[in-house]
Amino acid sequence: QVQLVESGGGSAQPGTSLRLSCAASTFTLDYYAIGWFRQAPGKEREGVSCIRTSDSGTYYADSVKGRFAISRDKNTVYLQMYSLKPEDPAVYYCAATWRTSGGDWCSHVRYDFWGRGTQVTVSS
Description:
Oligomer: single chain
Low-confidence stretches: none
Shape: globular
Radius of gyration: 13 Å
Distance between the termini: 40 Å
Number of helices: 0
């Protein structure tokens, strides 16, 4: 069974940084795409950033371009979040999919395996 475990969430001040980790414990990340998604109260789940392990392709939502960086080290995927803004708070989920081709490969509907999420809060 595919298991993904997020960590690294918490509270941060605006303008500071947090790093989220997504560890795959029961499978190898080779040939998967791993995505970070977030959902704030009352809002739809949003694709934040994804990485495709086959070619190291990446995707970033416009709202985080230049501020967030996704990376992979063996079986862990990281989301480094810089310059946190008041609109970034949400529960952040990581997820995995085999379906890595096509223009919408970072759409949450493609992702089959999900972690439980980690809360990110931004406040001064």
